[in-house]
Design a protein that fits this description.
This protein has about 450 residues and is of the alpha/beta class. The chain has 2 domains: about 1-290, Carbamate kinase; about 290-435, 3-Layer(aba) Sandwich (Aminopeptidase), CATH 3.40.630.30. It has 16 helices and 23 strands. It has an 8-stranded mixed β-sheet, sandwiched between helices. Strands 17-18-19-20-21-23-22 form a 7-stranded mixed β-sheet. It has a two-stranded antiparallel ribbon with strand order 3-4. The chain starts with a helix and ends with a strand.
Length: about 450
């Protein structure tokens, strides 16, 4: 029963994300290690689930281990220069083309076979690939001719749009083609970045060999803004797999990609855990802070109800029907985190007595002890000042200590506005606290 209850709770919490993601476009990038380590079958399950809820998916694969194996079989040495960029001569290019060709066919086969012994059996993914990337040579860098190593010059985004709109998944290899018919070896990180920018993707997801970006104490940083990533990039924390991504992360974010995610490729179900849970398991990057505090609108009523209904059922809050919220929504302030309402509060002013009532303060369980309640209280106090109210009071049954810790003092019913005192519910027996507005 506990497992069933936990599943229901998770599914309900995932519902807003499913609703938001429907019709969006995600670019998912991964190196050839995912195939090499045998993790791609699990990834296929996750991708199929994304497609089933209406997400348009573009996959960009790398092929480093496969290229290395091909070179080794032909007794050729790898040659790297300029921050570990492969120098691609003609012999190496042959290995690059062979490795990418075999890998692309393998990925297409795995994606196309459907998922036996799963609820999605019989639902094969329609996958397509093509010459979507136009490239140019890197040229000579620091005196080294990079030969057939190239940079992305242009993405044929219209062709990708057409495939996505027809219900197909698009697979892009790290190879580019020039107008003169030459083929260039590219990095999958650069290709993924440019594809995401060109098609205006909502998310760019990198599967890495670690959980994401860590701080100096090696703790995972779950959320970062672009400016914070820039600051970290300057400090050049030594994280090899992430180091190759710094430029791409910043460029993609500043060029309009809403969210970037770094996820440990070795975690089974990592994409689902990152995208469909509040806390995630990797690092998410956005241009601005994910958390915004603002005045509520009619569009927020559903989110507020989802937040307060469990508290109403437990007797923490007085029940408020949807109709009441609709007429009083202008009194509410909400905290929104990545599209989810995680906190709310209302201010009921009694202007004759110059007193305000703090009501319906609620914070999502996953965001308690993160300062959300304190931020909402500060907004209430600021709104009291704007409305020239000199005092704010609250009625509570289970949060007395929190209000005491935040400057409230116990008061009595006779100190409340007469209009409010008449409505006091003696059965609930709420304690009354007040705080002067300075």
């Amino acid at each position: 029963m506990k497992t069933s209850t936990e599943f229901v709770a998770w599914f309900r919490s995932a519902a807003p994300y499913i609703r938001t993601f429907r019709g969006q476009t995600f670019v998912i990038a991964f190196d050839g290690d995912v195939i090499e380590e045998g993790n791609f079958t699990d990834l296929t399950h996750d991708i199929n689930l994304l497609v089933s809820v209406g997400v348009k998916v573009v996959l960009v694969h790398g092929a480093r281990p496969q290229i290395e194996r091909s070179l080794k079989s032909k007794k050729l040495k790898s040659n790297f220069s300029n921050h570990q960029v492969r120098v691609t001569d003609e012999e190496t290019l042959t290995c690059v083309k062979e490795a990418n060709g075999r890998l692309r066919l393998e990925i297409e086969a795995l994606l196309s076979m459907g998922l036996p012994n799963t609820p999605l059996a019989g639902s094969p993914i329609r996958v397509t690939s093509g010459n979507f990337v136009i490239a140019q040579p890197k040229g000579i860098i620091n005196g080294v001719d990079m030969l057939y190593s190239g940079d992305v010059r242009k993405i044929r985004h219209e062709a990708i749009f057409q495939r996505l709109e027809s219900g197909e998944m698009v697979l892009v290899s790290p190879l580019g083609y020039s107008a003169t018919g030459e083929i260039f070896n590219l990095t999958h990180e650069d290709v993924a970045t440019e594809v995401a920018i060109a098609i205006k993707a909502n998310k760019l997801i990198y599967l890495c060999d670690q959980s994401g970006i860590n701080d100096k104490q090696n703790n995972l940083l779950n959320e970062l803004t672009t400016s914070e990533v820039k600051s970290l990039a300057k400090k050049r924390n030594k994280m090899p797999s992430i180091d190759r991504l710094w430029k791409g992360l910043i460029k993609a974010s500043e060029s309009g990609v809403d969210r970037l995610h770094l996820i440990d490729r070795k975690i089974n179900g990592g994409i689902l855990l990152e995208l469909f849970t509040h806390e995630g398991i990797g690092t998410m990057i956005s241009r601005d802070s994910l958390q915004a505090i603002r005045t509520a609108t009619q569009d927020d009523i559903g989110g507020i109800l989802s937040l307060i209904e469990p508290l109403e059922q437990n007797g923490v809050l007085v029940r408020r029907p949807r109709e009441t919220l609709e007429t009083e929504i202008q009194k509410f302030t909400v905290v929104e985190h990545d599209g989810l309402i995680v906190g709310c509060v209302a201010l009921n002013p009694f202007k004759r007595e110059k007193i305000g009532e703090l009501a319906c303060l609620a914070v999502h369980p996953d965001f308690q002890s993160t300062g959300v309640g304190e931020r909402l209280l500060k907004v209430v106090e600021a709104n009291c000042s704007k409305q020239k109210l000199i005092d704010v009071f609250v009625l509570t049954t289970q949060s007395s200590h929190w209000f005491l810790e935040n400057g409230f003092k116990k008061t009595v019913l006779s100190e409340l506005p007469k209009e409010k005192a008449k409505l006091y519910n003696y059965q609930r027996n709420s304690k009354i606290y007040s705080k002067p507005i300075i």
